[in-house]
Amino acid sequence: MNLVLQGPNAQRDVLDRIAARANPERIVPLSDHAVRCEQFAYSLELKQAIELAAHTAQVDATFIEAGRTLADFKLVAMDMDSTLITIECIDEIADMQGLKPQVAEITEAAMRGELDFSDSLKRRVALLEGLDASALERVYAERLQVSMGGEKMLAAVQAAGLKTLLVSGGFTFFTERLQQRLGLDFVHANELEIVDGKLTGRVVGGIVDAEEKKRTVERICAQLGAGPQQAIVMGDGANDLKMMKISGLSVAFRAKPVVYQQADVALNFSGLDGLLNILAE
């Protein structure tokens, strides 16, 4: 196993101090704020101790098999809301109706896995009935931001020849614009029904829930002549777990506890580009 330690504000002396707990034969600098420890005696006790020390120092600690690189993969699949972007779009749309607290509470419970996703989405979308569709453009233009390190991560994986998939329990209005903006290969999301320029409070067609997200990753991998084990899947909520579990590498980004406890990699402090240090050659 290798150990990658990184944090956006981590100083080298802090990283070295945490690394010393593993007593590695070699520490390889990866950037000003990241190092890789190689050749040390791995144990669960060591892992727990280092993860605790790292979290206290606001550093991400990732144990990963030595030799794994981007070349092992063919696809990066990402959730959208609170993963590739910083907001939950439906909460911000609801804000235009003065209903953000009510909708955000449902969103949060669904992401923690406490509510059925499909039912919770229908409840939230129903509250948007009658809202002028121009509110969607306002959310995109005024509030939507790509998460820290997202554009750098995408540029690197695309340069390495990997395909990209944005699969979201959110809405096509946003995934399609992000596809154009970021050069994404595939997108899949829910479509809000709009009649006479207003939201009807309904979704067109089937809902992109946890099972559909998993099926989408499988389908795109098949199109690429790859298996799910050649996919990196990034997410933050309970509805991402099924697609994360079939992947070759699951990445929890600023995730709910139910997600980061099950993921291969947890990025609690680093940007999405932290993936690049973890899979660096």
Distance between the termini: 14 Å
CATH superfamily of the domain at 1-67: ACT domain
Order of helices and strands: EHEEHEEHHHHHEHEEHEHEHEH
CATH topology of the domain at 1-67: Alpha-Beta Plaits
Low-confidence stretches: none
Class from helix and strand fractions: alpha/beta
Number of strands: 11
Radius of gyration computed on alpha carbons: 20 Å
Helix content: 25-40%
Mean pLDDT: 96
Strand residue content: 15-25%
- What's the architecture of the domain at 1-67, going by CATH? 2-Layer Sandwich
Largest sheet: 7 strands, mixed
Molecular shape: elongated
* Helical run tally: 12
Strand arrangement in the largest pleated sheet: 8-7-6-5-9-10-11
Active site: 79 (nucleophile), 81 (proton donor)
Catalytic activity: O-phospho-D-serine + H2O = D-serine + phosphate; O-phospho-L-serine + H2O = L-serine + phosphate
Enzyme class: hydrolase
Pfam families: HAD
What does this structure look like?
- This protein has 281 residues and is an alpha/beta fold.
- The protein has twelve helices and eleven strands.
- A seven-stranded mixed sheet has the order 8-7-6-5-9-10-11, with helices on both faces. Strands 2-3-1-4 form a four-stranded antiparallel sheet.
- The chain has a domain at 1-67: 2-Layer Sandwich (Alpha-Beta Plaits), CATH 3.30.70.
- The model has no long low-confidence stretch (mean pLDDT 96).
- The chain has helices spanning 12-20, 44-56, 89-95, 100-111, 117-126, 134-142, 150-159, 172-182, 210-223, 241-245, 257-260, 274-278; strands spanning 2-6, 26-31, 34-38, 60-64, 75-78, 163-171, 186-195, 198-204, 231-235, 249-253, 265-267.
